[in-house]
Amino acid sequence: MSTTDHTGFTAVHDGPVLRVTITNPKRKNAIGYDTMVGLGETFATVDPSVRVIVLTGEGSDFCTGADLSATAAEAQRGITPEMTMDAANRLVQAIVDAPVPVVARVRGAAAGIGVALALAADLTYASEDSYLLLAFINIGLMPDGGAAALVAAAAGRAVAAEMALVGERLSAGEAKGFGLIAGVLSGEELDAKVEGVVAKLGGGPRRALELTKRALNGAALGALDRALEVEKAGQVELLQSADFLEGATAMLQKRKPVFG
């Protein structure tokens, strides 16, 4: 077993299993630019001995999206909105394109790009108290990371529109009912279920797993590439808008935004 610490996450290689854990619990596992880049590289360069990847978050939440508290510092380093969007898109694409199944273990909140990370996985299992939230509209932004395509592919346009345009929270039970995730379980049952699936996949035929995953994604996610392009263009514009400045400021100040 080998453990590698990265900015904002760890990767533990344990035989046929690679366990990737987002490690920013004080910020509910929000992720910044460096973490997005590192995660993308990890999923894009999977060791041939790996047959399954587990993605989860440390503590009580899966991932609450981009870390807005890091935005100013990233800008001072020369990180542009285009660079941030490219990193987010590469990460989601790397999860989808990983040559082995990715299992997402979701507790608590999966919000913003956290929704995209959870749904880009091949098998997503969530605790009963978890939820999906696309609250971009509340701070003057739009969904990114392919979230529009990932939600619509499984649940349809109406559910995607309610999540994206109204910013409605979707409980794990509702997400399961809409076909967005594979299972909803209690805390103890969640870990047992994930480990059971991981054990089965870890002993599976790697090439057959790869080709099966490729076929499933080809059938279900044909619109993902286009969605990533549209989201990047729109989000880059919105990230530089007065509405986003107001929305982000209001969120940090814990008040209701007043958009122009």
UniProtKB/TrEMBL annotation:
PANTHER family: EG:BACN32G11.4 PROTEIN, ENOYL-COA HYDRATASE. SUPFAM superfamilies: ClpP/crotonase (SSF52096). This is Enoyl-CoA hydratase. Signal peptide: none annotated. Belongs to the enoyl-CoA hydratase/isomerase family. It comes from Nocardia wallacei. GO terms for molecular function: catalytic activity. InterPro entries: ClpP/crotonase-like_dom_sf, Enoyl-CoA_hydra/iso, Enoyl-CoA_hydra_C. It comes from the Bacteria.
